[in-house]
Amino acid sequence: MASNKPYYSSILLKLSGEALQGEQGYGIDNDILNQIAKEISEVSKLGVRISIVIGGGNIYRGVSAAAEGMDRTTADYMGMLATAINSIALQHFLEKHGLVTRVQSALELNRVAEPYIQRRALRHLEKGRVVIFAAGTGNPYFTTDTAASLRALEINADIILKATKVNGVYDKDPNKFDNAKMFKSLKYMQVLEKELEIMDSTAISLCKDNKIPICVFNLFEKNNIKKIVMGKKVGTTVS
């Protein structure tokens, strides 16, 4: 399976906002962003089309704010703006590594990002630019996981790479249980039936209906993105 030629020619990378905060527990850790950007630039050199969706949980989490009594719609829009902040930050570091990058936003943020237009996104990717999709789907009640599934379908990505802090999908929390068992591969229905919290059920259902695989992997293990792109078995594959 592995050769000198990339196994996947177009990927959508889903980053959580929490991944960007490093050890500080909130906000953006520049060293982490720089490390992520370096890995992405290595993959880009292989000629792979790269698009990215980032969450906003390091700055603002709409669901937990709603649980604390804020109107869910308001909270979700605030969360979308948080994803835009993360997207602009990542764009800066990607460009420092020599990658031409565009942020496309589902909300109108004309001073800092292009509006999301599917054909324009495809054109950027054809030209070898990295595209970061900000502001989720632009609608409340939809997570950035759902946005990642939706955008992956719209730009014809071969796979969604779901970056996490652990090595893959486990039957229980590996940080709490030493006997947690990691799955090498799963079917979409198993994820839904076992209620494994990889992505929300809307995102999983979208992938299932359109047969787009998901690879859940550890972002902080060096060269994992490149290994997956080259066809090596890393993390857990959902298909």
Structure notes:
The structure is a single chain. With 239 residues, the protein is α/β, with parallel strands linked by helices. It has a single domain (10-238), classed as Acetylglutamate kinase-like (Carbamate kinase), CATH 3.40.1160. 37% of the residues lie in helices and 18% in strands. It has a nine-stranded mixed beta sheet with strand order 4-3-5-2-1-6-10-11-9, sandwiched between helices. Strands 7-8 form a two-stranded antiparallel ribbon. Helix 1 crosses helix 3 (72-96) and helix 5 (144-154) runs parallel beside helix 7. It is globular.
In quaternary terms, these chains amount to: single chain
The CATH homologous superfamily is termed: Acetylglutamate kinase-like
* Helical amount: 25-40%
The average pLDDT value, as a whole number, equals: 94
CATH architecture: 3-Layer(aba) Sandwich
First-last Cα distance: 17 Å
Q: Enter the CATH topology name.
A: Carbamate kinase
What number of domains? 1
Instruction: State the CATH class.
Output: Alpha Beta
Number of strands: 11
Put simply, the count of helices is: 8
Keyphrases for this structure?
239 residues, 18% strand, 11 strands, 9-stranded mixed β-sheet, Carbamate kinase
Overview in brief:
The protein is of the alpha/beta class and 239 residues long. The protein has a single domain (10-238), classed as Acetylglutamate kinase-like (Carbamate kinase), CATH 3.40.1160.
